[in-house]
Amino acid sequence: MTATRRDFVASSLAAAGLALAGTPAFAQSDWPAKPIRLIVPFPPGGGTDILSRLVANKLTEVSKWTVVPDNRGGAGGTIGIAEAARAQPTGYDLVMGQKDNMVVAPWLYKNLSYDPVKDLTAVAHVAYTPVVIVVRTESRFKTLKDVVEAARAQPDAVTFGSPGNGTTIHLAGEIFKTAAKIQIRHVPYKGSNAAMMDVLAGNVDLLVSSLPSAIAQIKAGKLRPLAVTSAKRSTSLPDIPTVAELGYGKDFDVSTWYGIFAPAGTPKPVVDKVNAEVNKLLARPDVQAAIHEQGAEYQAMSTTEFATLVKDDVAKWKGIVQASGARIE
Q1: Residues linked to residue 133 through DSSP beta bridges, in sequence order
Q2: pTM higher than 0.90, yes or no?
Q3: What domain range includes position 109?
């Protein structure tokens, strides 16, 4: 091959390489070019669904993206997370994860199909919230002490509902049982709404719930909050004591967080773009007020900060789950 021919071939290959290398960047700069699906791994009406729809609606309104919530509930949120982990890493399939299915699940489920650190990318932290222990207004239990005394008098006679086995909320109830040295019987439901309906109907004694799921019924006077499980009182319920304040474990602190994840391998410019837009939303007073209205606390993070939170919590909750003895086959 002559020198001229070699030079032509080399320059052509180089140009082709540059064109191929530039294609993803071009596609990413044009993202989003179609609607984005935000998987909600719980049924409609619960805390995750409420915050997911708030974020989706505000992104659609402010960023002019089309973000469509898609409820894929079941198995403590792990079905929806697994679907997101299997999705193509294009940025068009995101999921609203939380501590339940991203941190607790790996130590609770024997055959979980995804690794929350390896198979998903932390995109944007949205909010965190305490868990609240409530009873219906007509309940004989006026205080958490009433519950403890009744449970000590009749072990396993008192029941508590949760949105599902293996959720942080379920484990908050189990950890409370240990701290208070009582036996109360867990009744798992498929989502927050079903659990809510049964406690309002008097079919279960207590409801352990995320605050966003319960706040509307609390404000309506249909539920009586007995305690929150976080280290400090909630700004939404400043008059309600913490479990620790009431003397059941001085370090008692169980809360949950909510954040957006993408399949591993999603291009970093797309991840950074979603993170920036969500953080812009969280700086808006109307969004902050809406999150507070739901009983949650907004909290913006960088992608690195959020990824570190997930990784650290996965390690921390291994011991908590093992100590609780909870296990789902």
Answers
A1: 208, 227
A2: no
A3: 34-128+256-324
